[in-house]
Amino acid sequence: MLSHTRKNKILELLKTYKQISTQKLEKELDVSGATIRNDLAQLEEQGLIERIHGGAVLPDKDEVDSFRNFHKRSEKNIEEKKAIGKLAKDYIKSGQTIILDASSTILYLIPYLSNCEKLTVLTNGIYTALEVKNEEDFNVILLGGIVRPKSGSVEGLIGSCMLDDISADLMITSSHGFNVNNGLTDFNFYEVELKKKMVSKSSKLIALVDHTKIGHTSAAQFAKTSDIDLLITDSGIEEDDVKKIKEAGIDIIVGK
């Protein structure tokens, strides 16, 4: 069983039982205690569980929902996201095929797309598609798959298969975390697999990452540092982080 599949199974079991022992997880998932403890440590780091003696429990429900609820995330760091979206528009050209992820940051880019003509836009974002479809000469493709409660994204193998014959000029994405060692990371293991495929089908990758996510690592990687052509962030970023990003070979633009 793959690591991300196993961690999602742990979360599903916790949702059912509210509290679960390490021994039960070992039996349910047929893995060693060391593997379970490592998984629990990573899930706790992301705020998705709380470890207790001999097992784990779910944390406060509101805290977990703050990670997963799209509308809550879209209300955070609004001015920073607006500044980032305004800068990102300059890298999108008429006639291109672009991939947009389901992040709340992307919503602040969409108003600027009206300056382009004849874009083909592929996205797994439900709200992204609803916003961008209003442009009459855009070809908007919503990738198929599973829609989960309180999520603004579509996930799963159907969307991945739809990308098989696609060659995109550009992917624009955000993430839950970024650092130069681990690249772009996110907390939704199923969506991460789809975003990996999106990255592989794009000629260029632009990351829109506000300063609160710089230096952090989430549960799973979907893009290596070497995959990123340009990172756009806001003025809250530390100078030391700017230096590290440049030294890693990534072009960076800082909004005001």
From TrEMBL:
<keyword id="KW-0805">Transcription regulation</keyword>
<dbReference type="InterPro" id="IPR014036">
    <property type="entry name" value="DeoR-like_C"/>
</dbReference>
<dbReference type="InterPro" id="IPR036388">
    <property type="entry name" value="WH-like_DNA-bd_sf"/>
</dbReference>
<dbReference type="Pfam" id="PF00455">
    <property type="entry name" value="DeoRC"/>
</dbReference>
<dbReference type="Pfam" id="PF08220">
    <property type="entry name" value="HTH_DeoR"/>
</dbReference>
<dbReference type="InterPro" id="IPR037171">
    <property type="entry name" value="NagB/RpiA_transferase-like"/>
</dbReference>
<dbReference type="InterPro" id="IPR050313">
    <property type="entry name" value="Carb_Metab_HTH_regulators"/>
</dbReference>
<dbReference type="InterPro" id="IPR001034">
    <property type="entry name" value="DeoR_HTH"/>
</dbReference>
<dbReference type="GO" id="GO:0003677">
    <property type="term" value="F:DNA binding"/>
</dbReference>
<dbReference type="GO" id="GO:0003700">
    <property type="term" value="F:DNA-binding transcription factor activity"/>
</dbReference>
<keyword id="KW-0804">Transcription</keyword>
<dbReference type="InterPro" id="IPR018356">
    <property type="entry name" value="Tscrpt_reg_HTH_DeoR_CS"/>
</dbReference>
<protein>
    <submittedName>
        <fullName>DeoR family transcriptional regulator</fullName>
    </submittedName>
</protein>
<feature type="domain" description="HTH deoR-type">
    <location>
        <begin position="3"/>
        <end position="58"/>
    </location>
</feature>
<dbReference type="InterPro" id="IPR036390">
    <property type="entry name" value="WH_DNA-bd_sf"/>
</dbReference>
<keyword id="KW-0238">DNA-binding</keyword>
